[in-house]
Every structure is written in structure tokens, then in C-alpha cells.
# Entry
Amino acid sequence: MVVESDPWHYFTMTRSLAPLDLITRLIGFDTTSAKSNLALIEFVAEYLSQWTTEFRVTKSDDGRKSNLFATIGPSDIPGIVLSGHTDVVPANAPDWTSDPFTARVTDGKLYGRGAADMKSFIAVALAMAPRFAAAKLSQPIHFAFSYDEEVGCLGVRSLIADLKNLPVKPSLCIVGEPTEMTVIIGHKGKKSVTCTVHGKEGHSALNHKGVNAVEIAADLVHKIRSVQKRIRQEGPFEDGYDPPYSTLHTGVIHGGAALNIIPRECRFEFEIRNLPSHDPETIMAELRAHAQELAPEMLAVDPETGILFDERNNTVGLSVDEDSEPARLACQLTGHNHTSKVAFTTEAGLFAQADIPAVVCGPGSIAQAHRPDEFIALEQVEKCERFMTDLIKLIPQRTDKT
Ligand SMILES: [Zn+2]
# Structure
């Protein structure tokens, strides 16, 4: 019993790993979103099982991917969630100086896919596990590791839904996306939509007998552009974002077979990146209304024609108060006295939507994410370690009674 109260007991009696070893191990698992992350999750679960009291696993429908939620400390007290996604964007090996899934350290930087986005945050959290356990904190630390973040924050949704089964809801969440350890209290939401125009094929000389899907699509794309122009001029606006309004953008368009054939089908993809306070459904309603205006002309030629919107995913924006508990805690731990907002989306909005206030704060720079030769500066890893070491100091120890 005497030995158990000595925090160093855990270092000598258990198999703990240092942050850089853990980053290297995690990068070694090729968890590109299209692939399974189970090998990484098994490794993390086995490692954490030395200290955790609670384990929750939520799997994808096909069973190839899994979220992991683990708790160190009392499970009946609202705790602090350290959250990260385990998947990475694809790494095209020829674009890389060395193997993207073999970490290498050069000149104070650690290279590898996921080094910044965001295996280093997960690795530092894991490296701290024995210290979190040894500190006998009065408030639990939760680890929330998700799959398929890079393809629309898909995995974390079932993880968050499963948190309803906990004895108590966590009190706050820190999502460790790369922000160079600055504190982010807001980000835009994102809705991705595929629009398919079904027209009627025919000889181009007889265009009155067909429905030109490319031209109908062009009309809709023009509508998207005009909505964007209006929003740019009239808002709504919110300070702190670049640009300070919601954006619409068409990124892909395919349609038509030959110049002398009336195109039967045209498909295009667009996205809405909305301010947290700007409901993207109002924009979608406007686009759908425009599509309805186009329909009678199409249906008069052929009742089989039409316009379909397929909303592929919807990541909600994040907006928490500067004075909220997670923002104050993260500012205290980073030593920053200001917060900011970013353009990229994260899982933090979904945690906040589930009444678990969240901020984004993690090591590394978003400028290095999603690029060949992705890296993290080692001083960022050290800053993240300090952040978590100070977190231990801020949480009171359990008394014997608790
Ligand atoms: Zn990320």
C-alpha cells in the first residue's frame, strides 16, 4: 500500500512509453481513412488497460473500424475528455522524401503521416496515462479516439452517442487538432452536397425535345454563386473568421457525352462552410426552392427528369464562450490570455452539440497537415507534454474517502 501511493511506482512496475516512442508507434499503423484502424486501436487499448477503469468501444457498421473511449479515475464524476482522431489522409509515397509510415526525426522535427494531424496529441496523452493514474486525480481523464474524422467526422458520432451510457456526462472536452497549442473557441460548420440533374438525351439539333442536364446544372451553380455574392455583401458576419461570413463553393462537375448529344445527366459537388450561428439549412432551402422553379420546364418535356440533392455529411460548427470552462482551462494551461477561431472543421462542434463544451488545442501546425513530408516540431510535442503535466497539477487529488 505504501508503494502504491508513490507516483513513481507506476513507472517502475508498468510498461510506459515516452511520447516520441508512442508517436513513432502510432505513425507506423497505416490508418488512412479508407483502411481499418483496428490494429492501432488494439495497441492503444492494450497499452491503456494498465491504468484504465472504463473501456468503451464503438465500431463501424462493417466492423473494420473502431472508436475507443477509456477512463482513468473515478467514473461517477464528470471528467475531462482528451479527444483525437486516429485516421489520417492518404500519403502518396512518391511525393514523400521517405516512407510516410516510418517516423524519422531530423533537425528538431518528427516526420510522418499524422505527425501533426493528429497522432502526436494522442501519443502525448497516452504517454501521460501512468502519470494521470498515479496522481489519483479527483476528476477523471477520458481518452476519446475516433475513426473517419477526415472523411466527415463520421466515427465520433457513435462515440458521442454512447457517452449517454456513462454514469455521468464528461464536463468538458479538449480536441487536440494542430493549433500550435493556441486555444480555438470557434470554427465553421461544413455541409457537403452532391447534386444530380437527370435530363433527357437527344440529338442536339432537336434541343426542344430534350432536357439539357448540363445547362440546368449550370443554372444551379450560378444560383450558388449568386447566394455567395449576396452573403459576402450582406452577411451574416462574425468577427474572428477569415472570411467573416459563410462560404459556398462548387468543386467538381461532370456531365455530357458529346457536343452533338443533349446531356442526359450532370452531377456536381458543392459545399457550404457556415458560421456556427448561420444555419446551413436556410441556404439549402433557398437552393431547393430554386431547383423547384426549374422543375416544371423539365417535367413538361419528360416526367422522368429531375434534380436530386444528396447531402453526404454535415459537420456542425463550434462556438463556445471565451469564459466557458474549457476555454479558461486551456488558456490557463497554455499560458495564453486570448482565444481565436479557425476555418477548418473538427469534432469539437459535435461534442459541444452534445452538451460537452469543447475547445480545440493541440500540438503542431495545420500548415503541415495533409501535405507530403508532414512533420511536427519537437518543441510542440514538449509544449503539449507541459500542458498535460500542468493539467495534473490543476486537478485536486482524491482524498482517501473518495
Ligand atoms: Zn485532424
Summary: Residues 85, 117-118, 149, 177 surround zinc ion (CB under 6 Å). The longest helix spans residues 213-234. DSSP finds ten helices and 18 strands in the chain. The two ends are 16 Å apart (CA to CA).
